[in-house]
Amino acid sequence: MSHICRIFFVLFSCYTPIYAQLQDSLPDVQIIEQRFKDSIVDVRENFTAGQELQVFSQHQMMLYARQSLADFLSEQSPVFVKSYGVNGMSTLTFRGASAAQSAVLWNGVPITNPAVGLADVSLLTTGLFDRIAIQYGGSAALLGSGNVGGALLLDEKKADFTPQKHLSLGLGLGSFGRKNLAFRSGFQNQRWNLNISSFYQNQINDFPYSNDIGEEVNMTNSRLEAGGILLNADLRLGKMPLTLRKDHRLSFKIWWQKYNRQIPPALFESQSLKLQQDQSLRSLIHWQKTSGSHHLYVKSSINLESLHYDDEALPLNNKNLVVSYYQEAGWRWQLHSGVPNGSFLNKGIHRLLIFTPWQFTQATGSQIINRKQQHKPAIAGSLQFQSANAALQANIALRQEWVNSVAAPLLPGAGISYDWFVPMANKSEVTIRLRGNLQRTFRTPNLNELYYFPGGNPDLKPEQGWTSDAGYRIQYSKGKHVNSNWSVVHELSVFNRQIHDWIYWLGGSIWTPHNIAEVHSRGVETNNQLAWRLTKNWVADLSVKTAYVLATTVQSQLPNDGSIGKQIPYTPRYKGQGNFGIRFRRFSANYNHTYTGYRFSTIDESHYLLPYQTGSIQLMYVWQKGDYLVRVIGQLQNIWDEDYQIVNARPMPGRHYLLNLQLSWNQ
Fold it and tell me: Domain 2-666: what homologous superfamily?
């Protein structure tokens, strides 16, 4: 079966252009996506021509609102989510990059733990954010060194200061003792915007699984209790009305959360007494002013992250604290040329962005001998050109960064995209987009890789190299009538990345990071969508996303390690997803099917995990009367009761359900 699925996804990625997902292509959803795109706080996103950006629809996010980003991204994106099982860490793998080469940004501020260089997406709840997007490929010039494979972008929408009030309460339950509660409230007038979001989750996680001798037992030491709160406040400093060319505001955000989780035993352990407590406090102050062609901003963020790991069996009691400060000031200038008889470059929009980010990190704890610090100031800039009809976009970027007063290599980047619009009969249209970009990448070792005790390696060299990708997108839309229209999208991306001095942890009782010389990553991704409005009330969609990734060791500094020409551990060559959904008036349903191929757990491919397939169903019913809205969401996960592991010896739950009720009031 696994060979059939593998062949199917490869053939589909090469030859099939007609499957699609409704949420990304229907006109009403496009309006929603554009509104949030216009409200992005991070101005750098306007300077990423030629890079692929996946913005998730509000409908998709609603279905997974009470679940972690690990669950959401594993089913709705081609990104591989490396999950260490229930209550374990979950990290992102973009296009064969390591977890440390991936970035996670919250309103433009990096929230990847700077000490360990990782972001645990199992600790991020989907419903906390107004907009979730993925930027594929490296963009070190704009997002900073360390952004090699891609970036996860998390944002809250920008206040428009239109008087309104809203209140929402969510209640949920599920298999294995799951209970969750969510609350959201907001108030906005012509000067203030206040929003608060919070969540609470409690779960026993005593699901049955087969142990290493084939007996069915229930998972033990697997309880989870978590809660968090996110507060947003915006103050309008300028006069009404707000426009794209006139805006002055001050924003403040504070985000606290705490996870208490028991770490269940692996298959090779008879029992586990491990406990882990993750707590974080993040804050952000952001001032911005737009006046005509000029936009000025300053943002400042302080993040505190603590981890307490306790294992009574050893005994082991580790406490670690990471304090990071991020500051960024920038200026964006925009010139509308529009000279009637001028040259081609004078018939468009020119944008210039100059900004100065600075990040300071300090780590203390049981595994860090003495207090270790790292500071990374930088100066960066980008120049963009957009033609008068917005068909052509091109940009160049450059960044100079210093790590502990030592200059890093210059990080240039460039990208370009071009759209053809072909009007056809019957109000139909074909849009063809070509794009490409080239980026230099660089990642300095994080504090854990350098100073972790025991095992840190202070002699590590930085990772560096080049990454490029190119692709096309073809979209055919037929009919503009509200009762009958459909859209077809076929998108293909190819990427290539060469990284020297790749860092990888190896060892037995004591693990140590090493530079394994050179890794070559390349592959193909496809996104195929079909959306069809059958009648005014009936809508259907179908989509298939595929990813083929080869990430192999080209050279190795470790003698006779057997890694040359072999796939990097825990990088599946094949990954694919299919979604089929329907909507009828207030009811919507979606079926998701995900295939993940072989994952090697050793650098010489001597041990591997079998491919697995999972299916899930999402149902939603919405009832609205006046200012009141009721939303019921149900999910049945792993409906085929697949017995699988994402990471070796960490079993995943079988068939289980989730049910959520949301009551809302808006005025």
Answer: TonB-dependent receptor, beta-barrel domain (2.40.170.20)
